Amino acid sequence: MDKKQEQKTIGYEQSKQKQLDDFRVDDSGQKLTTNQGLRVSDDEHSLKAGERGPTIMEDFHFREKMTHFDHERIPERVVHARGYAAHGYFQVYEPMKEYTKAKFLQDPSVKTPVFVRFSTVAGSRGSGDTVRDARGFATKFYTEEGNYDLVGNNIPVFFIQDAIKFPDLVHSFKPEPHNEMPQASTAHDTFWDFVANNTESAHMIMWAMSDRAIPRSYRMMEGFGVHTFRFVNEEGKARFVKFHWKPVLGVHSLVWDEAQKLAGKDPDFHRRDLWEAIEMGNYPEFELGVQMIEEEDEFNFNFDILDPTKIWPEEMVPVQIIGKMTLNRNVDNVFAETEQVAFHPGHVVPGIDFSNDPLLQGRLFSYTDTQLTRLGGPNFHEIPINRPVCPFHNHQRDGMHRMTINRGPVAYHKNSLQGNDPSPASAEEGGYVHYQEKIDGRKVRRRSESFKDHYSQATLFWNSMSEVEQQHIIKAFRFELGKVKSKDIQQQVVDMFSNVDQYLAEQIAVGIGAKPPVNAKGSGVTLSSPALSQENTIKVPDTRKVAVLAENGFNDSEVNEVIDALKKAGVTAEIISSHLGMITSADGEQLEVTHTFLTSDSVLFDAVYVAGGQQSVDQLKGQKEAMNFIGEAFSHYKAIGAVGEGRELLAAANIPGIETAAQVTGKEVYSTSGVVFSRDAENMDAFNEAFIDAIAGHRHWMRKM
Ligand code: HDE
């Protein structure tokens, strides 16, 4: 069976895993050897001239081990250095023949293997996961026609309109060169100096100051291709297209205080979340959506559809959902896979083509160029994670770390010694033919007039936010600009954002002690786009994490009922107590503790439940960590539940309204602003239902704090 036939029989999903299997190595049961396969007899002592004598050069094992170690690190990515990845597959829902000839978008029964890397942009490899930043969302589809990479972000627009400004942008947001501070943060002078002097950034800044920049989980972010691409069908008809990933769990965020604390409590919060979800079988799912615009409608919008600082509002150009991606396997080795994967927006397949977006065009140069350094030469396409699942043949030869053993003397085109093989394929044979767009222009260094509107969509975004989301944006500006030392830059930014919205600019000014803008006019846009607000997202309890606070003497039957109900709703419960090991209920039943108050924290959970049982509650009341746990959950707007005596702990933690509410209403189960409690353990079904509802609500903003 040749390779191609083999792939068809085993299906493309398995074929990537099968290909990787050839490189996966399991050391268990093996003897230690050198890289030459020689068995090593001692790995703890270097070879010495006498027990107390000098080490001898002859020690080939020592030299090999140390040399390899000395070169273990490779340069980190110049941007998107910190990332985490997983394997999975993609399936299209319906054939997309009418719009594109891309083979992986035709057959709903085909599972196309994918590898997805999520990342932060600014921080270095060891930085925290929960910083305020855009997130990278890069997908490699291993299709039968070659690799297709959709290298996107979780924000649908970008800071700049022309790739030539990318090095400037990045220099401004990276740590300042004279003191290497701050790490993984845009809250410093050079970044805001860039913003104030490059007003095309206004729209992206609105997103970056919004809750989108502090996602709850990689599994709960949207992804966007950002640029306008083209779909081209078999007949050669093209349409403009924008790509979207929509998370099945909805789009959810952290709150800023929580995000900052998480960076210390668990800098790996997002990677751990992804890893654990996959290990538990809670496979992250994202639906692929496309927005399409007919070529003849290119100029029918009040923005330029090639401008990467503009969205196509979903209410104007609906998103058609065309398929789903499921991530179902963690990597075996982060370096070999996550670190060595190389994405490129220029990796396309027939049926997907480019537009003249000047940001996209520039990206097409940068990726291979930077990867040549990072991955040490021109052969990184041969690294297992980067190999396509279809065969590849060309006349490229040699270079650092070449793996392929090309046979025969011919390495040139055209040739007759090998019958001109490998030879170019026609379009009918699957050859990629670029869309024949007619171009007629002068060679100029200029930007189109149609890219000049920098504010309308920044205002559209602002108008689309709920009141709470707007307050978060104001606070984010105040935080970031509050860290800026230059009064001039602070003032310039206030004045700049008065072009977006007067109230916004005034509020920023008040918070940072700048002058309120004079003659503020806003952009005049009054429209909003409900699709932009996270308030309107999907809200489900699935895969949320609840902390169960309990000590010896807890009410066993109540706790079990709650945990069972949570489990049924797809929610995980972890037991937090003052010590590890077992705790014993009032009836003598035992429960294993998952974490102590020392090893865990409220910010690591979506909700808290206080177990009933007088002895347990009394013990918890005596611990300030338990009080803080509840207090923080409350101030982070999370669901809180308590049954019976558990309520006393909420009252002791000063959760407002607990005592009075129960007395006033006389209800058995009471639920207000995400705080749910039941007077006793008689009404567990009603309690569980209300508590799970509150967990699904994600955050309860109506709390007055
Ligand atoms: Fe990137 N970007 N980028 N970028 N980008 C890189 O490539 C670049 C842009 C994105 O997980 C680099 O291999 C330029 C937009 C992701 O491995 C580099 C411009 C979007 C990743 C590079 C942009 C992205 C990168 C660094 C302006 C969203 C991580 C390491 C024209 C659509 C991929 C590397 C991964 C990585 C260049 C702008 C997404 C330097 C020149 C817009 C998700 O080549």
What would you note in describing this structure?
The protein has 705 residues and is an alpha+beta fold. 29% of the residues lie in helices and 16% in strands. Strands 1, 2, 3, 4, 5, 6, 7, 8, 9 and 10 form a ten-stranded antiparallel β-sheet that branches. A seven-stranded mixed β-sheet has the order 15-12-11-16-17-19-18, with helices on both faces. A two-stranded antiparallel sheet has the order 13-14. Bound molecules: CIS-heme D hydroxychlorin gamma-spirolactone 17R, 18S. The site of CIS-heme D hydroxychlorin gamma-spirolactone 17R, 18S has 26 residues, from strand 2, strand 3, strand 4 and helix 10.
Query: CATH-wise, what's the superfamily of the largest domain?
Result: Catalase core domain
The span between the termini is: 68 Å
Number of strands: 19
The first-level CATH class name of the largest domain: Mainly Beta
The amount of beta strand, in percent, is 15-25%
Number of domains in the coordinates?
3
Brief summary:
With 705 residues, the chain is an alpha+beta fold. Helices cover 29% and strands 16% of the residues.
Please describe the structure with a list of short key phrases separated by commas or semicolons.
single chain; 705 residues; alpha+beta; Catalase HpII,  Chain A, domain 1; Hemocyanin, N-terminal domain; Rossmann fold; 3 domains; 10-stranded antiparallel β-sheet; 7-stranded mixed β-sheet; binds CIS-heme D hydroxychlorin gamma-spirolactone 17R, 18S
